[in-house]
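Work Package 3 (structural annotation) set out to generate three-dimensional models for the target panel prioritized at the project kickoff. During this period the team completed the workflow that converts sequence records into discrete structure tokens, so that structures can be stored uniformly alongside our sequence database. As a representative example, we reproduce one entry of 274 residues exactly as it appears in the project archive.
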Amino acid sequence: MATAAERGITKLVYLEKLLALAPYLLKYCRNRHLTTIRFPNGIHGKSFYQKNAPEPIPPFVKLAPLDGIQYVHLDSIPTLLWLGNLACLEFHPSFHYIGSELPAEWLIDIDPSREVEPRIMEAVMLIGEALDKMNIRAVPKTSGATGVQLFIPIAKPYTFDQLRSIGRFLGQYLTQRYPKLFTIERLKKNRGDLIYVDYLQHWYGKTLSSPYTPRAREAASVSAPLEWSEVEANIDPRDLHLLNIEERLRTKGDLIEKTPPQSLDHVLSFIGKA
């Protein structure tokens, strides 16, 4: 597998790819509180999470204050390129919109306990089947790293607590149905080789990798929505990267946008959280 450097991804190429991703990346970062991960000396150098806007702040950059932190509001191409020029290689928006305490969508993080996990797509397929039985349509999305997330557009406002309740219900079903594959154990050291169904990450004030964010990996991978047929075919997330994501978007478009918002009322009623 070629590294980012071997692929010829210089800083200029990176900024060009950000520009191409902008219509999609901005869609999921706009009107959110943004956390970035900066790699001033490249992906193998030291990195740090940036919540407060880096100074000096250009006049075109808007801020989104929350709880004493001056977050960047990523709402424009100039702001995106400014961040890219500062070696922000990853973009992690809040789960809620600016000024709201309600989730903008529902996300479940599927996190392998091993760095190399050949069962990850099998696990995602089983979760998709479980959601289908609950009459919920989800979009699988590579994290761009080792995991996969399930992105569920929602049809109406729900609380974080309500969505966490459904996630707990789903996680408990999966661990009981497939005890040799899934766990809902939060501590990694206690998971063994089981795949973690993380329904707890989706909460006010927390973040997850945005759809279409680059990831600071040797493969120059991008967090990309998948078709279920690709999950079934055991796609390698490293095959979706900065040098081919444009062609993918031209042919497939935004798979999340194509998925209708889901009502979860029937599930909440069933588990007593309506």
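Helices lie at 11-29, 77-85, 120-133, 160-177, 228-232, 245-252, 265-271.
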